[in-house]
Specification:
Blueprint: H1 5-31, H2 35-60, H3 102-126, H4 130-157, H5 167-176
Amino acid sequence: MQLAGHEIHDLHELTMSCVNSITNMGCFLAQAQDPELREMIERHFPYHIRDYNIKTEYLKNAQGPTKEFPVPDLNPVLQSFTQSPTSVQPVMPRIQVPQFNDREIATAYLLTLKRAGREYAWAAMEMSHPDLRTFLEDAFRMSSRHAYDVWQWMVQKGYYPLEPASQNVQTTMAGMYQEVPESNPAMTPVMP
């Protein structure tokens, strides 16, 4: 099977993004001070290497990779999904940076994962090669789950705000939408 022209170009951009991610992760591993942050990046690192290698295989051979791409599990660790366990720490950009601190590492990594996730989702929607489309969907899920890990670490450290929506806003939004009966005969096929 041959790849379409747009698929090759998307793969090129996504592979360049992986080069950036892996290079940054190597730097982050050398500079991270917090053992939990370093362990998380070490745990994520092989997924990003595999992701990159699968892309290079697709670029060389449209038949695709010889290895599986495992999607990591979602790992919720926060006790509350609406409230920070600690107060939010203020931040200000530094203009002279001889070395990143842990907050800067986590922020850069989180933003890299979010950007990669958007790129994977967008590219997957454009793929005509079904195996490549599935791989990019899985790569999106990897990015999403790794971003969740980093985000939770940042929330625990007070580096990312987490607060519940006000009851007033929730009531307003909930009142805007009415459910559609799913037993409507016009709906075919009927969902289980």
